[in-house]
Amino acid sequence: MHVLIKYSDNLGKRVFDVVKYTLEAFLMIYLSFKATLYDQAQGMRTIFSVISAQVYFTGWQALPIVSVLALASGAAIILQGTSQFSFFGGTNMLGNLIVAVVVRELSPLLTALIVIARSGTAVASELGSMKVNREVEGLESMGINPLSYIVFPRFMGGVISVLCLAFYFNVVAIIGGFFVTIFIRDIDFLFYTNLIIQSLAVEDIYMYLLKNTFSGAMIFVIACKQGMSVQKSSHEVPQMTTLAVVRSLIYVVCFNLITTGLFYLNHFIKLGVL
Amino acid sequence: MLRESITNFKLANFSLQSESGETLLEPTNFLLPESGIYFLAGDMEKTHQLLRCLSGLSEPASGTIVLNDNRFDDMSFEDFLPYRLNLSYGFDLGGLLSNRSIRDNLKLCAEYHALFTKEELDLKVNKLLTDFDIKEYANERPFHVPGYVRKLVCVLRSFVHEPQYVLLDSPTTALDSERKVCLGKLISNYCKGEQPRVVIFSSSDEFFLEQYLNYETILMVDKKMEYSASANFGDAV
């Protein structure tokens, strides 16, 4: 009985810590927006220059790796789909498969993973180093709010980058994947594009916006939060960077799962199944 | 950005504690000076903590700082900003931005808050770089310059935007004797202008203290704080 109570207590504390961390992350987003809004000194020019730099590093420089992953995963899905569906004459379902797997699931997840690995680590370690070198303190002492100067541009640049990268992933996976597979399976391009267009729905756009905006927001706010958590010693920097990666990953995967679950729940309710 | 002139700068029931919980300064009321150069004499841990609190970077163990009858602990970052632009703090390892050049670091505060025109600012910064003979490092990043240059720029950065109060934490660390002379002249000339200005510094450099500055002393000994030969805020009320 005592063990059960202790277990429940620990579980409750962990759940509470997760909720508290999530609320703190949303609070950081709110405070960075508020600080930027109130910061009369930081002109739009400064903000846009830092945001565009972040978009360049996170978005533009990630295009090669996103292209490779998108091509490979798109081609694999198309190959598998055409192979399996051709056994029972279900080739018309190919469009549904590609939209369901690539557009709704693979694209947001793989894009987020790439951004976490490349930019999440970079932002967390950069901010951690800034804390160790007392650069953040130096900014505060000069009346420059770190939330508006450091956090907000990285957050906005990150969200924009993830949205653009996910869109790019979809295009490359669908179109590029097709051109890879025509060497193995002969599929008519017009037939293929018609299948895709018929399978896409308005809900897919909402899912794309929801999943990718949340992913971009959480990746960068967690990276900034963990980086700013470094206290004094440089040995904390890699620890906080690792925490940023792990936590971003968990949040992104869980949110994707919850969104997909809610989407299909809504779908089944509309169909009258539930 | 408009700066708020500080007409009244005092400590109200202010106390300090070390990280281990030991009392460094007992609750005290203290009125900070309105003009002149002041040496903060005492244990380096106490002076360091006090300067950090005065610059708004950390909180005291109890009590607060009062600026123009406004309590610091009642102010948000934006509320404190007009006062902060009249308070600068030069500290060791002073947080130069590693992705900006030495020149850009010197200009950062004044440029960000648009306190001077571009031409005025360039003139001020160039003069400082020339006077202290570090112009060759002006376009280098902080980690590509010698340690004494980084330390010097941390100190000089506090003067560029011409605040009313300049707080310096061990400003002569790693400086050679020539640059200590220059710094002494800079501090002396800074307080001679028409506008009332205060420089409060802590130092363990006896040579600098004896040779270069005409200053008064604020003593921080036996957990108390007082001018070396004058009344504190409590007596003034």
In words, what does this structure look like?
- The complex is a heterodimer of chains A (274) and B (237).
- Chain A is built from nine helices and no strands.
- By secondary structure, chain A is mainly alpha-helical.
- In chain B, helix 3 (102-112) packs antiparallel against helix 4.
- In chain B, the strands form two sheets. A six-stranded mixed sheet of chain B has the order 6-7-8-3-9-10, with helices on both faces. A four-stranded antiparallel sheet of chain B has the order 2-1-4-5, covered by helices on one side.
- With 237 residues, chain B is α/β, with parallel strands linked by helices.
- Chain A binds chain B through residues 35, 38-42, 129-130, 133-145, and chain B through 1, 55-57, 77-78, 81, 84-85, 88-89, 91, 93-98, 108-109, 112-114, 154, 157.
Q: How do you describe this structure in short?
A:
The complex is a heterodimer of chains A (274) and B (237). Chain A is an all-alpha fold and 274 residues long. Chain A has helices at 2-38, 44-58, 63-85, 94-132, 135-141, 146-181, 189-199, 202-228, 236-271.
